[in-house]
Amino acid sequence: MNGPPLTLLQNILALLEATKDDKTKQELTRLSDSAFAYEISEKRVSVMDLLERFPAVSLTVGSFLQMLPPMRVRQYSISSSPLWNPSRVTLTYAVLDQPSLSGHGRFVGVASNYLSSLEPDERLHVSVRGSNQAFHLPTDPENVPVIMIAAGTGKYLV
User: Fold this and answer.
1) Cα–Cα distance between 106 and 95 in angstroms, integer?
2) How far is CA 10 from the centre of its chain?
3) Residue 138 — φ and ψ, nearest 5°?
4) How confident is the model at residue 95 (pLDDT cuts 50, 70, 90)?
5) Which residues partner with 98 through β-bridges?
6) Would you state the torsion angle of the CA atoms of residues 55, 61, 63, 68, taken in this order, to the nearest 10 degrees?
7) What sign does the dihedral 118-121-122-128 (CA atoms) show?
8) Are the C-beta atoms of residues 113 and 97 closer than 8 Å to each other?
9) Cα distance between residue 87 and residue 66, in whole Å
10) DSSP secondary structure of the chain
11) Contact residues for 49 (Cβ-Cβ < 8 A; gap 6+)
12) Which residues touch 118 (CB under 8 Å, ≥6 apart)?
């Protein structure tokens, strides 16, 4: 398999081709058709979930890696003031670790769990993106009221 990552439906069809077991073929066919929306999409079932569920699938490591979605860039807002320390910043984040919607295992946030594993004063290499040019304090902040609302940059699932 070469080229861009496959969609989840294409992944199921590839798993179907990678097995000789009739019961597994029958179930993967059902999951790729009438049950796809509810049992796969809504429950956010991953390729790994399917491989664990169907051990008769014989998939090469290269094919498995091709099926994985690319990592997304994680964006966090700096939660400290340069008045506190002009050479350091702090990030505020919530650790994502909850039962998976598929009902098997846990859904664990990659970035938030990594951040939580760091020790105090441990360095983290990041890229910093400047704020939009339109985002700036008034030239006379002592006399102009400012209301600041932080909406966050991530998505938290309940």
Assistant:
1) 13
2) 20
3) -65, 155
4) confident
5) 107
6) 90
7) positive
8) yes
9) 40
10) --SSPPPHHHHHHHHHHT---HHHHHHHHHHHTTTIIIIIITTT--HHHHHHH-TT----HHHHHHHSPPPPPP---B-S-TTT-TT---B-----EEE-TTSSSEEE-HHHHHHHHSPTT--------PPPTT----S-TTTS--------SS----
11) 100, 102, 104, 105
12) 124
Q: How far is CA 71 from CA 5, 56, 133, in A?
A: 12, 28, 28
Tell me which amino acid residue 105 is. Answer: G
Tokens of 113: 């769990």
pTM, entire model: 0.57
Residues shown for the chain:
158
- Span 28-70, pLDDT tens digits: 999 998 888 888 888 888 898 899 999 999 999 999 998 888 8
User: Can you state the angle between helices 8-17 and 22-32, rounded to 10 degrees?
Assistant: 160
